[in-house]
Amino acid sequence: MRSHSAGVNGPLERRRAVALDRLPDNRHAPGVAPDSPRAAAPSAAPAAAPERASPTGSLPDDALLAALPAVAARLPRARLGAWPTPVEPCPLGRDLWLKREDLSAPLYGGNKVRCLEPVLGELVRRGVRRAVGTGAWGSNQAVALAIHGPRCGVETGAILFPQPASRAAAHNLRSLLAARGDVRLLAHIALFPFAWLSARRAGLTVIPPGAAVPRGALGHLGAALEVVFAVRAGQLPMPRHIVLAVGSTCTTAGLLTGFAAARALGLIERVPTIHGVRVTPWPVTAHRRIVTLAVGTAALLARLGGPDVCARAPLRAALTVTGRELGWGYGHATAAGRGAIAAFDGVDGPHLDTTYAGKAAAWALAEADRLDGPVLFWATKSAVQPPMIDPAAASERAGARVSRWLARGVRSG
Fold it and tell me: Which residue range is the domain that position 307 belongs to?
């Protein structure tokens, strides 16, 4: 297992460089240039017949196209990621496996790339040329939007509220401040609703935190289908359990819908139980709220010509949510999370962060050997550090308070 970055020396960075070499340069959907503004346009070509992975065959580059060609033809998507992301065994548990979403894109990966593919695709279809990401100061979604939005001809900005300092959050914010977009840093989260309304009144397209809307969650349908195709290809046993951090709820809701769709298509006999490990508190990560987003995602899937998996009861039964690893709240590191990060680093696994994946990994390591059947852990933090377009600009734009926060984050690890 490996993870990667570039331009920094050290064991972790060397492991990240190895992982970078694993990413092909051209694994987007056939016939679509990933850096073209037209990449998001739906294909006018007839839908291809579904591909079927064989035990010795390669996996489809576009799992959605392979399983649901009619949906793929109707869903505008920006082609940003390197699909499918790998699955691999993890030596830290008896039957523990990893889904390497950290390797989703060479420029900047993680789970937010999947959300942005349909979101940016729809913006380009509508002719939107400027979008604003939202979240905390260290938002992964805001960084992903700033990096990938311009590839589709969309100018980007961000409205962000404070969070506890961490190294990963500091890297993200420095990258945003070094980019060319407008970044508005709020003094308190209570100001966020007013800033949101102000941006909307100014005519800006505002993307919710984590892109947690049905269209964004639908991006993770492909991730669920990738797992199914990998199982059919003999790369791993069918997971009985999936463990991931739940913050904005977009990924969790999308996976609920994706595995329900796979069952409706006859690709699997039973859906795995999805265990959401809270990194943001209730009610943001309330069980009912996640299921409601999954139902909305399923409704969008049905409108696009996919199977009808809108029934709430099966989606509700497939989800558990735990707050055991939350600690003092969002962004606050925990001893268990740091221990999980050290354990993954010790086996050259994906490098996790203290805000999201570290907390989820702590739960997975504690519970994996007690759960019945294979466990698949979702590694969600990009293995690629966000690029620094203009480091001098980052320092100039930070101001005294933010500069102190950045320094604390870098020191915190």
Answer: 57-111+214-379
Residues 143, 281, single domain; the answer is no
Give CA–CA dist 271/71, Å, rounded: 21
Closest CA to 273 of 230, 313, 316, 311: 316
Residue 188, Cβ density class (10 Å: 0-12 exposed, 13-18 middle, ≥19 buried): exposed
397 and 332 part of one domain: no
pLDDT digits (tens, 9 = 90+) for 22-57: 554 433 333 233 444 334 443 323 233 333 333 335
93, 367 in Cβ contact below 8 A? no
What pTM, to 2 d.p., does this model score?
0.88
- Let me know whether 338 and 259 are in one domain: yes
Summary mean pLDDT of the chain: 88
For 115, counting Cβ atoms within 10 Å of its Cβ (0-12 exposed, 13-18 middle, 19+ buried), the class is buried
Asked if omega into 283 is within 30° of 0 (cis), the reply is yes
Write the pLDDT tens digit of every residue in 94-112.
999 999 999 999 999 999 9
Distance of alpha carbon 393 from alpha carbon 381, whole angstroms: 25
The residue among 135, 98, 95 whose CA lies nearest residue 115 is: 135
Q: What is the pLDDT of residues 8-20, one digit of tens each?
A: 345 555 555 555 5
Longest dimension (CA), the chain: 58
